[in-house]
Write a structure and sequence with these properties.
alpha/beta; 10 strands; four-stranded parallel beta sheet
Length: 281
């Protein structure tokens, strides 16, 4: 056994990334942590999110994770660099750079980013896209209504469709022809987004993130061997109400057990003043 892949998000949205990993790397085991004690991250102070992300990364590494995937755009935006510096012996991936790369690869120069308020405030997607294609025009749209709708199981409701139109139509009116799903929850709104943006290229960063993960595992010689016994673990830091049912839908397979851990008991926030200053500049 080479150890599990650690994956985390503020809630259940990161399970869309975990699902992509399991589809493409079926011999791997995962340990997934949903920080339900603090969901959603989108409106929280960046320094607070950074502390949560580093604490969770430490916890997953302590549990034997051979690689950690920040399946959370907010965590990626404010804590990826810090985590990579703090835990240099374990590969740590985020979702923003892979998503930006996939968007640029569509060949379209007018790119809209649908994201949480915090991710938009961080400017992380804009910076990543501009580094890859300085000529790109980027609009970042905060979508505060999306995560509560999805986490409550209302992704297919009329209310959700109305929210999608509210956020997507201005981007299309401005000329965006590629849209990035800048939060791991948002793939569940993809049908409504495609309806509101006919003809636009829709980018799900989970796909490119998984490709990068496979490359890292292969280069380091830590890919699971075919036929290895897989064991998937699911953990929540707060309530587990509805996680097994709704989480199974997010993952695309049945979640039979969700373990509970507590902040202040099983894990602690980790602070990094350098990263905190960078995130808030």
């Amino acid at each position: 056994m080479t150890g599990p892949i650690g994956v985390f998000d503020s809630g259940l949205g990161g399970l869309t990334v975990a699902a992509e990993i399991l589809r493409n790397l079926p011999d791997e085991s995962i340990i997934y942590l949903a920080d339900t004690a603090h969901v959603p991250y989108g409106e929280r102070p960046l320094a607070e999110i950074e502390g949560f992300a580093l604490g969770i990364t430490q916890y997953l590494i302590n549990r034997g994770a051979k690689v950690v995937v920040m399946a959370c755009n907010m965590s990626t935006a404010v804590a990826l660099e810090s985590a990579q510096e703090t835990f240099p012996d374990v590969p740590i991936l985020g979702v923003i750079e892979p998503g930006s790369r996939a968007a640029v690869m569509t060949g379209n120069n007018a790119i809209g980013v649908l994201a949480t308020t915090g991710t938009v405030k961080s400017g992380a997607y804009r910076r990543a896209i501009k580094q890859l294609n300085p000529g790109a025009v980027v609009w970042e749209q905060p979508c505060s209504a999306f995560v509560p709708l999805i986490e409550s199981g209302r992704a297919e409701s009329e209310e959700a469709e109305a929210a999608v139109r509210k956020y997507v139509e201005p981007l299309i009116a401005n000329g965006a022809n590629t849209l990035i799903l800048g939060c791991t929850h948002y793939p569940f709104l993809r049908p409504a987004i495609e309806k509101a943006a006919p003809g636009a290229s829709i980018v799900d960063p989970a796909e490119e993130t998984t490709s990068e993960l496979r490359k890292i595992l292969s280069e380091r010689g830590i890919l699971a061997e075919p036929g290895e016994v897989t064991e998937h673990q699911f953990i929540a830091s707060g309530t587990t109400d509805g996680i097994a049912k709704l989480g199974s839908r997010f993952l695309g397979r049945n979640i039979e057990r969700v373990d509970i851990i507590e902040w202040g008991v099983d894990l602690e926030p980790v602070r990094n003043s350098k990263c905190r200053m960078n995130a808030e500049r």
